[in-house]
Amino acid sequence: MSIDVETAARVAKLARIQVADDALPGLAEEFNTILGFIEQLGEVDVEGVEPMVSVEPMRLPRRRDGVTDGGMQDKILSNAPDAREGFFAVPKVVE
């Protein structure tokens, strides 16, 4: 696949990047170089290679997944302009 000047201008417009007309040929060449690198990656044999999260074989730290109420209801409600019965009180907006 090859990127021409018109396609480079369209990509720049879609990306909301202002590119001068005289810089479009250089931008198209850069796009073509990037596409060449991507084509090279497609040629690499990755059969049998496990996907990795990191270059270090390590497990991600995990915390216990437990439901809590945070234990700070009074502290949180102290910031509210109006709180009643343990909840935020708001004005009625629907009749």
TrEMBL record:
One of its GO terms (biological process) is regulation of translational fidelity. It comes from the Bacteria. It catalyses: L-aspartyl-tRNA(Asn) + L-glutamine + ATP + H2O = L-asparaginyl-tRNA(Asn) + L-glutamate + ADP + phosphate + 2 H(+); L-glutamyl-tRNA(Gln) + L-glutamine + ATP + H2O = L-glutaminyl-tRNA(Gln) + L-glutamate + ADP + phosphate + H(+). It is an enzyme of class 6 (ligase). The keyword Phosphoprotein does not apply. GO terms for molecular function: asparaginyl-tRNA synthase (glutamine-hydrolyzing) activity; ATP binding; glutaminyl-tRNA synthase (glutamine-hydrolyzing) activity; transferase activity. SUPFAM superfamilies: Glu-tRNAGln amidotransferase C subunit (SSF141000). Keywords: ATP-binding, Ligase, Nucleotide-binding, Protein biosynthesis, Transferase. Its EC number is 6.3.5.-. HAMAP family: GatC. Belongs to the GatC family. Heterotrimer of A, B and C subunits. Allows the formation of correctly charged Asn-tRNA(Asn) or Gln-tRNA(Gln) through the transamidation of misacylated Asp-tRNA(Asn) or Glu-tRNA(Gln) in organisms which lack either or both of asparaginyl-tRNA or glutaminyl-tRNA synthetases. The reaction takes place in the presence of glutamine and ATP through an activated phospho-Asp-tRNA(Asn) or phospho-Glu-tRNA(Gln). This is Aspartyl/glutamyl-tRNA(Asn/Gln) amidotransferase subunit C. The gene is gatC.
